[in-house]
Specification:
By secondary structure, this protein is of the alpha+beta class. Helix content is 42%, strand content 13%.
């Protein structure tokens, strides 16, 4: 069954990690610009309009090709955050200065 997940771009790395854990590495994750809270109806409509075509293509396109296209989406961002000293939990990604190389941590 064609499926997509719509998530704010801020939570894309977490969505990718969860999809991979569930064995759905190619699950299409369609990012909507963060934040959504406190957005007025016009801004929400504009953000939604910006992703409609991508959603339609993901739901109606060749499933294998769509999976291949989406498999690496957000993975590089997640890896870059981790390599840069980010620690990701279910709620937040934060910089752990103890994980940074001495030259980046200011010492």
């Amino acid at each position: 069954m064609p499926t997509v997940v719509i998530c704010s771009d801020e939570f894309g790395p977490l969505g990718r990690a969860e999809a991979e854990v569930l064995g759905l590495g190619g699950l299409p994750l369609i990012a909507i610009p963060h934040p959504l809270a406190d957005n007025g109806p016009d801004l929400v409509a504009a953000k939604a309009a910006g992703i409609v075509e991508e959603i339609e293509r993901a739901l109606t396109g060749d499933a294998a090709a769509i999976g291949d296209e989406h498999r690496d989406r957000f993975r590089r961002l997640t890896q870059r955050r981790l390599e840069g000293g980010m620690v990701c939990t279910d709620d937040v990604c934060a910089i752990d200065l103890a994980m940074l190389p001495a030259s980046n941590a200011g010492g």
